[in-house]
Amino acid sequence: MHKVAQAPPEAQDKRLLIAKIIVVALYVVGAVGLSIPDYRPFFQSLTPAQLLVTLGLVLFFHRGWTDLFPIFAALAFWIGFGAELIGIHTGYLFGDYVYGPTLGPMLWEVPLVIGVNWFVLVYLTGAVFSKSIPNDYYAAFMGATAMTAFDYVMEPVASALDMWYWKFDIIPFENYLGWFGVSFLIHLLYRKTNFEKSNPLAAFLLIAMILFFAVLNFTLEL
């Protein structure tokens, strides 16, 4: 296990404050920009960058830099990406849907950043339950439940912003079952992989993301 030298508490607090300001700016400006029709195309084009900045903030404040953490991160990325690949080309797992242009470059008709999205969401929801729930399976269940609830809030916005489209414009119940199942698997890997799970920015960032999509549910013409 590699130990990473930590900055003094005052410096850590200052970095955390700066990061929270960045998060607020990132998601408030994004929500406002996407809510204004004239500016919406520009802010849609920034969606992959927004997700990558979020990833950068998650990794910057991550404390458990063991040899196993990059392995977990890669598994989370490729399991999520692979599930989407199966979904797009077979209709299994999530139902019939196709991706739009908003999420950027694609590989086999699936945006590359979708794997980042799976990793980030599992990491953030997992961090919230990491200390409060000792049982791995129950924690994975709660994490998967939280992610499915997040997806329920995100789905209408995603379609409105050309992230993905559902056949007949109907979000099937199968989608939420698939989300729960894939989330549970990755959450279980998160729990079983030995690295420090605490991240001082995780809860704040997760709340910002939830509020971002919740606000857009009211400001967009869904």
UniProtKB/TrEMBL annotation:
Q: Which Pfam families match?
A: Caroten_synth (PF04240)
Coiled coil residues, start to end? none
Question: What superkingdom heads the lineage?
Answer: Bacteria
Claim: Lyase is one of the keywords in the record = no
Q: Which parts of the chain span the membrane according to its record?
A: 16-36, 42-61, 68-94, 106-125, 137-153, 173-190, 202-220
Keyword terms of this UniProt record: Membrane, Transmembrane, Transmembrane helix
Record's protein name: Carotenoid biosynthesis protein
What species was this sequence derived from? Algoriphagus pacificus
